[in-house]
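Before a colleague's protein record goes any further, I have to sign it off. What it holds is a sequence and that sequence's fold in token form. My question to you is simply how this chain folds and whether the tokens agree. Thanks in advance; the entry in question is below:
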Amino acid sequence: MSAEATNPVSAAEAAATDTGVRRRGRARLDLRRLGRAALLGATAGPAPRDRLPDAIGHVAEAHRAHHPEADLSVLRRAYVLAESSHRGQFRKSGEPYITHPLAVTLILAELGAETTTLTASLLHDTVEDTEVTLDQVRREFGDEVAYLVDGVTKVEKIDYGAAAEPETFRKMLVATGNDVRVMSIKLADRLHNMRTLGVMRPEKQARIAKVTRDVLIPLAERLGVQALKTELEDLVFAILHPEEYETTRALIADATGSGSPDALAAVAEQVGAVLREADIAAEVLVRPRHFVSVHRVRLKRGDLRGCDFGRLLVLVAEDADCYAVLGELHTCFTPLISEFKDFIAAPKFNLYQSLHTAIAAPDGAVAEVLIRTHRMHKVAEAGVVALGSPYGTAPEPADLPETAEDGERTDPTRLGWLARLLDWQESAPDPDTFWSSLHADLAEDREITVFRADGGTLGLPAGSTCVDAAYARHGEAAHACLGARVNGRLAPLSTVLSDGDTVQLLLAQDTGSGPSPEWLDHARTPAARIAITAWLQAHPEAAHQPAAAPRPPLSVAADRSSRAELHADVDGGPPAPVRPAGCCTPVPPDTITGFRVRGGAVTAHRTGCPAVDVMHRLGRAAVPVRWGDAAHCRVTLVAESFGRPGLLADLTEAIATAGAEVVSATVEPPSEQRVRHTYTLQLADAAELPNLMRAMRDVPGVYDVGRTHRL
């Protein structure tokens, strides 16, 4: 939009080396010739109604290649409006301004965008830079086109000042949440501006390149538009790292111009022969790496060999054929198992599907191989652009994802990362927070899926913790989160989650509680950080509370004289005193086993106590023990809980209400908000033990109560 640009920088032509597969050899347009054609079209009057103006003939050709039955009349009307409204405007290079929307539209047409997207692309700068109004666009082209044009229109700098750029992106992202075609047009717009950035001052080139690197390239990756992402990466690379770019360019030039045999082409021939012999219909292509990819490989491997400058792309018809190809390659060549990845069974969150592997040819050359169907390849290159209209208003190509039952096209990006981004941006209090949070969010380039205890799922950036999961699941209600169980086991909120984990988030019943400042150390997602920061700012007293000093264990002792009656049957000897073992504290009607200890006494253990196995391994003989007639008993219980004010008083009240007497109690110092209480209790009737444990578990903050079971 409003591009001030001139001739393409050298990186643009270099990046074109990776576009052969997707452009089918179509030459890049001469923008000056296109500009002259636009001017000629303007002076010679409108084109006849039965054909498009010559200036957009290339757009029509590219569009018809993907959509043979498309009605191009709307494109003609959009071109006429765009050309007439931009007439007299020129880019800094001297080209008529109409060349910019034409070039942006051609980029999208080559990716397979449908007619509505191309129409909006032709008009994307009219509302911002000409006298055309959004209402006029809506009247002539409908609500859909008007929405797309408005989505990519910048906010007025006179209204927003320095915040104009962040607020423009915020507006654009909100619009993208309803229609991903908005961001498709913006990415194509930025690509053409980057291609023609040469006349800008170096400092302005660097500023635009940094925003492209930090925001637009990650968005292109998340939307799956690899064709745009790779070229943008190369253009940014040339501007921000000119020395490394020149080194990489020289390496590629030497590898392609040395006249030596092409190692990758030789491997491609071998692979093709293997697949033909296996009767698998496949197209084997050599896919050159783009500049940034070569640079990364050089940093990883050091000296580069012939096969490092590209990868093999194997295209087949069906999903099953992908695995058939994989089987043949791993059978006939030596596979590098560490390089194998299956993105068909587990697609990336940006729609990408493919099998990745690496094989060693008989001569020792190692080649990376991508295996995918033609449909997967189209989606891998064009991402959401290949989805067309997310509302199913455009014709449905047979090889694209199916439409949902309600008529809307299946679009994975409408959930996941985009939904999370839209959620937290609403809470960003100012443009600076939004801008920095957006950079941080987009820097997380991997996603994990965790399962909720109720069966649902949460999509989170890799590296997220239980704090992030709490705010993703409950929003501001997560302020009352006490802890979590990860895969069934209690875990601190700082626990980093892995793909496939099951998370149960435990919330306090007291909704007035809030997060501690330490949560910011564990929060990775903008949604969590913004919510925690807002709460702490609204409750400054909580943010400045001093850390609690470690407390010694609190012990309360009472009369220990009363306990359940135990009897031992000792052959040939006097009756021996029997006492319950402290490691498992058996109570009636537990099944028990006794063992002699020093002094002739017998200790009674529950049969499942680990000490019983230890005694047997030591060769100690068991002594039969049994309960007497008395129903009263003594038992030691351990309550695991999350720390909160009044917890000890509430537990003690629950114990008293259940009719139990506290013999002793120990409260360990809190650790990561967890507190462990150990109670030795006297019960009038052992049958009441289950009710007592249930009453203790019902105390808010208590997540588990159990019998002691230690050696």
